[in-house]
Amino acid sequence: MGIASNCKYPMFFGRNLNSITCKGLALIMIALFLRVVLLPSFSGHGGIDKNNLDLIHSRSLSLDSDNGIRKDKFLEVPQIVWGLNNQKIAFARACLTARMLNRTLLMPSLSASLFYKEIDRLQPISFDKVFQFDKFNALCNGFVQLGRYSDLRNRTGVYELQKGSGRKWTVERDLDQLKEFSEDSFDGYEVIRIVGKNPFLWHDHWPVKDYARVFECLVLVDEIAKEADKVVSKIREVGKEMGSKSQSSQSGADPDSSLSQPVPYVAVHMRIEIDWMIHCKKLEQRLNVSEICSSKQEIMERVGNIAGLKSPLVIYLAVADSLLEDSSILAGWKEGLLSS
C-alpha cells in the first residue's frame, strides 16, 4: 500500500496523522536524509564548513568592496611619527582603520624630523606638504578617503576612542573594539578621535595587498620628488664615473661605452642609529637571542659577501644620520664598493 492510503507512522508525539500529514512528514524526512548524506560531499564545492567561515571572516577584513566611503563621518588619528617608511605604514594602517569604520580619515599630521625621546623637538608637517592630497583621493577613490578639517560641520560631535597598548592589548581585543565602533550606535558622532599610542603601534588586521593599494596612491609633491630625482642622479653620476675609470684602465675599451650601460647600485638600509640599537638590544634580552642587532662592521662584511655583486659598485646607504653616534659609515668598505 502507498503512503496516500496508509501511513507507517500513525503516531507522532502521541498524535494521529492523516494521509496528507504523512505525505508532508515523509517529504521532510527524505529531505533531511538527503541533506545528511549529500552535504559532506558538497562541502568542498560551496558548503560552509569551519574553513570557509574563516575565509569569509578574512575576506570581511580585506575590505574588497569599492562601494565608497562615507564623507560625512570622520576618523581622527594622533600625529604620525618616526621615519618616513614607518610613517607610510602607520598612515596606511590609519586609512584601513577608517575604512573598516566606514569613515573618511581626517588628513593626519606627519613628522618632518626624527627624534629620540625629545618629544619637544618633534616637528609636525601636514600630509599635503609631503604627498599630493587630491591625487591620493583620485587614485584611492572608493577604497579609502582623506578629508580636511574644513569639511567638518560640527566639531562638538566627537567621541574619543582609547586605543589599548601593552601586552594585554591583544589582536583579538583590538579587533573586537573596531567591530564595536563599526556599529550603528556610534553613527551619531561626526568624528571618532583615536587617542593613545601612535598609529604605527596599532595591531594589524589587513592583508598586505590592502597596504599596497594605499601605498600606490601616495604620490610625493613635486618639490620632494625633485629632491629624490637629485639623489638618483647623484648615484648614477658616481656610477658612471666609476665605470669610466674601470674601462679606461682596460686596454682597447671604449671610454664612451659606459654611458649607454645601466649603472648598477645596491641600497643598504643601515640600522645602527641610537634608537634602533637600544630597541633591538632590549628585544634580544627579552627573547634571549643575539641575532637582531648588527654592528657597522657586520653590515659591511655581509654586503661585501653578497654573491653575484660585480665591482666597481655604488653602495647607497639609507641611514638616519641625525641619530648616529658613529659618523664614519662611509669609510671601511670593501675595495670596489663606493658608498654614498
TrEMBL record:
| Gene3D superfamilies, per the entry | 3.40.50.11350
Example GO molecular function: glycosyltransferase activity
Give the GO biological process terms. fucose metabolic process; pollen-pistil interaction
**Per UniProt, which keywords does this protein have?**
Carbohydrate metabolism, Fucose metabolism, Glycosyltransferase, Membrane, Transferase, Transmembrane, Transmembrane helix
Instruction: Report whether Transferase shows up as a keyword of the record.
Output: yes
Stretches that traverse the bilayer:
20-42
Keyword Membrane part of the UniProt annotation: yes
Output the InterPro entries linked to this UniProt entry. Answer: AtOFT1-like (IPR044982), GDP-Fuc_O-FucTrfase (IPR019378)
Give the UniProt family note: Belongs to the glycosyltransferase GT106 family.
- Return the protein name: O-fucosyltransferase family protein
Q: Which organism is it from?
A: Salix udensis
Lineage of source species: Eukaryota, Viridiplantae, Streptophyta, Embryophyta, Tracheophyta
